[in-house]
Amino acid sequence: MRSVRAEPRGAARREGGPGDAPALDVRRAGERAEALIDELAALADPAARDKAEELVRLLVGLYGAGLERMLGVVVECDAAEVLRRFTADEVVSGLLVLHDLHPLGTQERVRAALDGVRGRLGDGVELLGVDRGGGQGVVRLRIAGHGCASTRAAVTGAVEHAVLAAAPEVARVEVEQAAEAPPLLQIGRRPPGEAAP
User: Fold this and answer.
1) Which span out of 2-16, 26-40, 104-118, 145-159 was modeled with the highest average pLDDT?
2) Between these two residues, 145 and 159, which has the higher pLDDT value?
3) What is the gyration radius of the CA atoms in the chain, in angstroms?
4) Averaged over 14-38, what is the pLDDT?
5) What gap in Å lies between CA 102 and CA 86, rounded to an integer?
6) What digits encode the pLDDT tens for the residues 121-133?
7) For the chain, how far is it from start to end, CA to CA, in angstroms?
8) C-alpha–C-alpha distance, residues 156 and 143, integer Å
9) What ranges does the record give for the region Disordered, renumbered to this chain (predicted)?
10) CA-CA distance, 87 to 81, in Å (whole number)?
11) What whole-number distance in Å separates Cα of residue 117 and Cα of residue 155?
């Protein structure tokens, strides 16, 4: 008889102390799960396909019910700090979004992510809007110029990563570059010996 072994506790995290970045990329895991579900739908054996899809639905429902009960206990105990830490953890937050249990909406999570980015990269990131039309979320941002092209690309990449980590349900991030401010007028000293007009 085959058995399914659970990963040891902490296996989903990198070496190091609490607060280290999680090794599990929630967005990639979700995309991989969707791809596997699509592959299951293409199985030739309908009995195997139905059992596999039932297994997926059962597990997702079980985890969702467990998360909902955990959040209920947190709210009943008025444990605001626990809830804050849940929502600040990338993996837990992604699971709460997946099961439609996250206490914050998409726009609130995107704003919080941008606040975190501003703390590291400075001002110059503006949220233009979050569109949910057509079932695909699109976040539109404006980013101020940051010198050379490679620096701008690095800043844009960091901002996109932060937004997609906070809001994995978002399909894409559209970034426009803010117009560069014209250089200040330079006023120099008059050359020595030159008379004023």
Assistant:
1) 104-118
2) 159
3) 24
4) 67
5) 9
6) 777 888 998 887 6
7) 101
8) 8
9) 1-25
10) 10
11) 9
Q: Can you give the pLDDT at residue 5? A: 46
Q: Give the DSSP per-residue string, 155-176.
A: HHHHHHHHHHHH-TTEEEEEEE
Contact between residue 130 and residue 106 where contact means Cβ atoms under 8 Å apart: yes
Distance CA 172, CA 175 (A): 10
Domain boundaries of the chain, sorted by first residue: 29-98, 105-177
Cα dist. 94→100, 104, 191 in Å?
A: 10, 12, 65
Q: Taking a C-beta distance cutoff of 8 angstroms, is the pair 166, 112 a contact? A: yes
Biggest CA-to-CA distance, the chain: 101
- Hey, which residues does 176 pair with through a beta bridge? 142
Q: What is the pLDDT of residue 23?
A: 61
AA identity, residue 89: D
What is the tens place of the pLDDT at every residue in 58-89? 998 999 999 999 999 999 999 899 998 998 88
Return the pLDDT at 195. 56
Could you name the CATH architecture of 105-177? 2-Layer Sandwich (3.30)
3-state percent helix, strand, coil for the chain, nearest multiple of 5: 50, 10, 35
